[in-house]
Amino acid sequence: MKRMLSIMFILALIPTVCFSQNATGEFNLFGGIALPQGDFKDDPDDPDSGLAKTGFGVGVNHIRPLTTPGMSWITSAALLYNGMEVDESDYDLDYYGIDVTVDAGAWINIPIMTGLKYETEVSPTMKIYGLGQVGINMVKAPKLEIKASSSSSSVKAETEYDMASSFGYVFGGGIVLSEKISVGLRYFALGEPKIKGTVKASGGGESDSEKFELKQSISVLLLMVELSL
Description:
Elements: H1 2-13, E1 26-36, E2 55-65, E3 71-83, E4 99-104, E5 106-123, E6 126-140, E7 144-149, E8 154-161, E9 164-176, E10 181-189, E11 194-203, E12 206-215, E13 219-228
Antiparallel strand pairs: 1-2, 1-13, 2-3, 3-5, 4-7, 5-6, 6-9, 7-8, 8-11, 9-10, 10-13, 11-12
């Protein structure tokens, strides 16, 4: 963690000596479709799958030009929301007279990234850009609740997770359609955080709980639109 914080501190200092003197920077907003990638996406046959569904992402950028033409320093904060795919047929116990319901929450990732953006004109009516960033991601894993009931009894089990963090990076690019609007994509590689959780079970007048820890690889492709303020 000390090494991560040192890297972030150095990255924060670099732009202070490189900014264009007359550039105050600007803010823009972005949002779009968040597509889980790799082990993070829904794959019931993969024991390492995060079972994440297609979701959405929103965020804000602060962009400040550097002295090098076309180069800018870009700092971003985003929220990526992906529901958790659960197949209730995996818990089907109707044959035994037991009714099972499953309620799953969502993956919430909050990446805070900083890095460089380069923009260039490819024709009189079109510009393209590319960017690369590094930073820290905060993640909250989805809560999972399972209830089973019969004519004589009922039991409930639920899993809750603490907030976790990991080092990650982002790269992407896009097309500038006008001074106010651009479209593009960003790939968020958010590492493999260690997530601490607690499973609680209750039923028949008794209850129990147990703590555990898991590691989950997280990566998301965001198809997005940017709007300058």
